[in-house]
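Dear support,

Our group has been running a series of protein-ligand predictions, and this particular one with ketopantoate is the one our PI (initials K.S.) wants archived with full inputs and outputs. We had some confusion internally about which version of the output was final, so please treat the block below as the authoritative record. The input we submitted was:
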Amino acid sequence: MHSNMEHIYIVGLGAISRALAVFLRLSGKRVTIIRGSLNDGSYKSAHFSARMPDGTVLEAEVTVAALNTFSAIDGIIVVASKSYANKQLAIDLKEKIGNSPIVLLQNGLGIEQPFVEQNFQEIYRAVLFVTSQVIDDATVQFRPVAACPVGIERGSMENLSKIVSQLTTPQFIFETKAHLKNIIWKKAIINCVFNSVCPLLEVDNGIFSRSPHAMQIARRIISECLSIAHHKEIWLVQKDIEDSLLEISFASDGQLISTLQDIRRQRNTEIDTLNLEIARMAEGLGKSEAVRETKLLGELTKMKAQICLSGR
Ligand SMILES: NC(=O)C1=CN([C@@H]2O[C@H](COP(=O)(O)OP(=O)(O)OC[C@H]3O[C@@H](n4cnc5c(N)ncnc54)[C@H](OP(=O)(O)O)[C@@H]3O)[C@@H](O)[C@H]2O)C=CC1
Ligand SMILES: CC(C)(CO)C(=O)C(=O)O
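Confirmed final output from the archive:
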């Protein structure tokens, strides 16, 4: 066992990290949030609240610190910052964390690659079936959908089990998963639908459970992405993905997808690791035509984000 799996460091002060930190603190765990994009020497205690689906509000004090306040970090490193920052993050963390295991919570395909390239010794990936939305600096609105599987990119089953038990709370449940690849793809395909259609329509996640027309569009995207998954020998079934998408849509009715939150806050989005990554894969296979709609939705989403960022 790693020397200090008792301390959990969560990278990125966002919707997911605030909720996770509150739940872990309330379970008596030692937690520190490390700022993802700020490296200003700050080290303070902050009060966060998570609004639950039944209206209850869970609150906790959490230490929030910049990475440059640590000379070394020893614990479980949970990455909940944006995936487009992983290249730089992998470089920055490499010199600080020694043999500490890293757990990636991010959506998308290939997001672990920067950590593999930097030769991190233990890399685990989680697939999140929860939604969290920032309401204000201190508050997030949290909705669990299902247990979140965690698997091994590099590491051991023994440590995976320990990590899962350390991260699991009654509100945010993780579970070990021996083979994660199919679920990563399944969630990425679901995200190709949510993270493009919802921002383009400026609508909440519940749209697919309310509108048969939106669900029709979802089916077309799922079918396109599945054809590429099959070329990669990922054997998923259309109906299973549709059912999961609908389950998430019901459970997160009223909740905004992260990409729409990003666009509204004039931030970069993760669409590059979703629709546009599948489009790149299709191109590599000589199958660009197979994902025309997925790619177009991805391009429009990217353009919308750029227009909001630049103001034109
Ligand atoms: N929100 C949700 O419901 C879900 C989110 N996810 C995934 O979880 C991950 C986190 O999502 P979420 O919490 O919503 O995201 P947020 O945008 O709320 O927070 C992400 C954090 O990433 C950090 N960050 C942003 N840009 C950079 C950068 N250029 N360099 C370093 N750090 C940066 C920021 O932290 P700081 O302010 O400390 O710099 C930011 O607050 C994403 O990959 C998302 O896809 C998955 C399922 C559901
Ligand atoms: C699809 C969804 C809503 C599920 O967790 C998600 O991944 C997100 O909000 O980014």
